[in-house]
């Protein structure tokens, strides 16, 4: 069964007909060609597919596209404003918060959601907010440093 | 796969009356499975073709189910209230703190923003983290259908593994939790790691004017109260160590060996969790 949905993604409205079973991550990647959102595990564990739905972090592999109808979605492609990177993106660059980069879009979306709610988190709060995101390269230290750096720089 | 997306509760009840009423044999070809956040359903989704063949009733567009209502004597959660909503609710931190503690143990933030308290009840997992705290707080489940409404104490809601006192044409509309003064409350969860783990053994303990409540998860076919332990606490029976509690617990729980743990580990750890949690506040504990 196909459904007509309208989703605002990174400020732009998209209308598409989708299969009821289609996951949001596949809608973003395959229909809208926004391939910055990665598929890691499809078991709701790794967090590489994290996006914002109505401003809150969700795993787009744990979400049907039809349930995003009428919602506003932000992906990693929507974090940059014009030529200016989001402060969390800048901080990952500055603090070398990545190695292979596969988990990075999800990490940045999870961190960005944290800083919206809590602009100056403690290290424990940063680590708590990353419970849903796995990184197999960095050992997390530089990711945590990057998020603290973004917070000190006044990330929005 | 078909998915129905009603925008009102009466529309949802009418759909369930059409699709889900009658004996199992007489059910329409595709009974509707109610969903909200869907966080239990979508895990491993691409590898679950059986689930793709079903029909769903997506409740997430029903605004009237989103309300959180604080009254002097109770908290009422609409069926779409998420874990995250209560994590953000400062009143909840002080009035019913175990709800916040349990919410923070469910998956991670991305699951907490989608998963609902009512979904935790209706998924009926014996490992549910939200259910033990709601049960320890004497929560009452409000069910609705096109025929009317009824209320069932959460402690009486489960009849066996994934068996609920709820007809296929009924929906959870709300959960009501009484506000009381608590002399003691504690939530403990043991998983294989601190992040995103499913519970091997867990317990919620509350003491108020209504008496002791001890509710364990992952140690029986359903989340369950432990009446023998509650009576032992109410009667101030002397407890010399975890082994005394283990003997009493054997009346209350029926753990099994499974993918996450063993029955022996669960019995032993639950007795120790209880003993060390209670020792500081029970003079009968030596």
Over the alpha carbons, how many angstroms does the gyration radius of chain A reach? 15 Å
CATH topology of the largest domain in chain A: the name is Ubiquitin-like (UB roll)
User: Could you give the count of β-strands of chain A?
Assistant: 5
Please state roughly what percent of the residues of chain B sit in beta strands, choosing from under 5%, 5-15%, 15-25%, 25-35%, 35-45% or over 45%. Answer: 15-25%
**Unreliable runs of chain B:** none
What's the topology here?
The complex is a heterodimer of chains A (156) and B (286).
Chain A: E1 2-9, E2 12-19, H1 24-31, E3 50-53, E4 56-59, E5 72-74, H2 87-94, H3 104-117, H4 123-129, H5 141-152
Parallel strand pairs in A: 1-5
Antiparallel strand pairs in A: 1-2, 3-4, 3-5
Chain B: E1 2-4, H1 9-20, E2 32-35, H2 49-52, E3 55-58, E4 68-70, E5 74-78, H3 83-87, H4 90-95, H5 97-103, H6 109-112, H7 117-122, H8 130-136, E6 140-145, E7 148-153, E8 158-160, E9 163-164, E10 171-178, E11 182-190, E12 201-208, E13 211-217, E14 224-225, H9 227-234, H10 242-249, H11 263-278
Parallel strand pairs in B: 1-3, 2-3
Antiparallel strand pairs in B: 4-5, 5-10, 6-7, 6-10, 8-9, 11-12, 12-13, 13-14
Helix pairs in contact in B: 10-11
Quick rundown:
The complex is a heterodimer of chains A (156) and B (286). Chain A is an alpha+beta fold and 156 residues long.
